[in-house]
């Protein structure tokens, strides 16, 4: 999740721990500044390979070498990759999530935000950012910062595999025209708050980057951009590779 989301409170982590302890109906409530509140079942973070969206299965098939799974949640992607023989380090800002991953058998787990310098001491062939994982960067400025920072994470020839979405459809009027505040922040910057039972976390930023924006930012940061797949809900999977 976002670097600022769960440092003092940990509603996501506590929901995941509750599910891990047998509370099958544990559910997070997600509030945002662009949509009505939505329930997010903790079970979603525990899905098996065939419960995952096709974009995620494609991403797992495209992994190579040593993998860094950022925003790993309950470790469903890391566990699948481990079962295929990959060496995976799974990272999340949520202490509860990292505890759940350890209990579930993820071999290498760390509780860090995405900029923690401890992560740069090793190099990875694949940096994996699923579940709209580009959003971890938070804002447009954060995206530019992260793409530069990721140079320190990648081994020679390494790749970032990430998913994101174009949420412009949220701003369509009844005639299908897009209505933006051109003087405001980028329309894909969203503010979220999570709550589990009576525990509310801090508000955090999440960015949904449309493909053109991501391509422009990534190329400016020295990456070659390859769009691998998309679905019918404006979500896409992209591969970013450092240019030689």
Blueprint of the fold:
Elements: H1 11-20, E1 27-32, E2 38-41, H2 54-62, E3 67-70, H3 76-83, E4 88-92, H4 95-104, E5 108-111, E6 124-129, H5 140-149, E7 154-165, E8 189-196, E9 199-200, E10 204-207, H6 211-220, E11 223-230, E12 235-242
Parallel strand pairs: 3-4, 3-6, 4-5, 6-7
Antiparallel strand pairs: 1-2, 1-8, 7-12, 8-9, 8-10, 11-12
Helix pairs in contact: 1-4
Structure, described:
There is one protein chain. With 244 residues, this protein is α/β, with parallel strands linked by helices. The chain has a domain at 52-187 and 210-242: Vaccinia Virus protein VP39 (Rossmann fold, 3-Layer(aba) Sandwich). Helices cover 23% and strands 29% of the residues. The chain contains 6 helices and 12 strands. The protein has helices spanning 11-20, 54-62, 76-83, 95-104, 140-149, 211-220, and strands at 27-32, 38-41, 67-70, 88-92, 108-111, 124-129, 154-165, 189-196, 199-200, 204-207, 223-230, 235-242. The strands form 2 sheets. It has a 7-stranded mixed β-sheet, with helices on both faces. Strands 1, 2, 8, 9 and 10 form a 5-stranded antiparallel β-sheet that branches. Helix 1 (11-20) runs parallel beside helix 4. The longest helix has 10 residues, at 11-20. One of its GO terms (molecular function) is methyltransferase activity. This is Class I SAM-dependent methyltransferase. Pfam families: Methyltransf_23.
């Amino acid at each position: 999740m976002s670097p600022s989301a769960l440092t003092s409170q940990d509603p996501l982590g506590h929901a995941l721990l509750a599910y891990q302890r047998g509370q099958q109906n544990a559910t997070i409530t997600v509030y945002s500044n662009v949509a009505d509140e939505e329930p997010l079942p903790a079970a979603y973070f525990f899905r098996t390979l065939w419960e995952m969206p096709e974009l995620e299965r494609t991403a797992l098939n495209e992994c190579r070498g040593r993998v860094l799974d950022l925003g790993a949640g309950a470790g469903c992607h890391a566990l699948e990759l481990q079962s295929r023989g990959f060496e995976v380090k799974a990272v999340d800002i949520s202490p509860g999530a990292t505890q759940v991953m350890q209990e579930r058998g993820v071999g290498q787990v760390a509780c860090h935000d995405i900029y923690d310098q401890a992560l740069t001491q090793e190099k990875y062939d694949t940096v994996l950012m699923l579940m709209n994982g580009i959003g971890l960067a938070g804002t447009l400025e954060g995206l530019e910062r992260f793409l530069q920072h990721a140079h320190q994470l990648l081994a020679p020839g390494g790749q970032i595999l990430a998913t994101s979405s174009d949420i412009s459809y949220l701003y369509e009027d009844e005639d299908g025209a897009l209505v933006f505040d051109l003087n405001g922040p980028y329309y894909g910057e969203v503010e979220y708050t999570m709550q589990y039972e009576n525990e509310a976390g801090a508000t955090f930023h999440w960015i949904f980057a449309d493909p053109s924006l991501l391509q422009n930012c990534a190329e400016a940061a020295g990456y070659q951009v390859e769009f691998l797949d998309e679905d019918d809900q404006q979500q896409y999977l992209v591969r970013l590779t450092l240019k030689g």
